[in-house]
Amino acid sequence: MNIDACYQLGYVIKKHGTSGEVSIFLDVDQPNEYSELESVFVEINQKLVPFFIESIQIRDGKAVVKFEDIDTQDDAQTLKAKSIYLPLSTLPELEKDQFYYHQIVGYNIIDQKLGEIGIIKSVVTTNMQDLLVTEHKDKEVLIPINDSIVLDADHKSKVMHVNMPDGLLDVYLE
Asked: Which of 3, 44, 140, 164 has the most crowded CB, counting CB atoms within 10 A?
């Protein structure tokens, strides 16, 4: 499996218990939707390796997982901090104006008053606010993702329409 055909589900936090289980942080909005997983891909040495799941328990945005053939604490320890992936094809379909963050990287940001702002370089997720990262006039600009600022995503044209708060762009250009 190619990493470009996948999305990151989360990563292994630590070993859990004495029989090879691991604790996984699930970087998703609805962790319980993943309670029936049969397999995942684990990034090892920059390659995706399939791992089959014997059992999974979801709790508070984390999962305790027992993988096949991972039977000791030492085996589990080798997976610590490894990223966990699933194929993009497993993502649920979204409404017209909704988007997954990995989809919008490369979209052109157009403000309804200021016009073209720049291309989305990445999306930063923080505890307080998710942010679009772009560059405008050789300066990095962070644009909050919320319903009053992000108006819509035109997937066909690869354009993100925004209504930036007055003065936000000026903060980065001064």
From this structure: 164
CA–CA separation, 83 vs 135, rounded Å? 28
**58 and 35 Cβ atoms separated by less than 8 Å:** yes
**Identity of residue 73:** Q
Q: pLDDT by residue (tens digit) across 84-132? A: 999 998 887 877 768 888 889 999 999 999 999 999 999 998 888 999 9
Judged by phi (left if over 0) then psi (alpha if -120 to 50, else beta), residue 115 lies in: left
pLDDT in tens, 53-63: 999 999 988 99
Cβ atoms within 10 Å, residue 104: 20
Q: Are 101 and 113 in contact (CB under 8 A)?
A: no
pTM for the structure as a whole:
0.72
Cβ(16)–Cβ(56) under 8 Å? no
Instruction: For the chain, give the secondary structure using H, E and C.
Output: CCHHHEEEEEEEEEEECCCCEEEEEECCCCHHHHCCCCEEEEEECCEEEEEEEEEEEEECCEEEEEECCCCCHHHHHCCCCCEEEEEHHHCCCCCCCCCCHHHHCCCEEEECCCEEEEECCEEEECCCCEEEEEEECCEEEEEECCCCCEEEEECCCCEEEECCCCCHHHHHHC
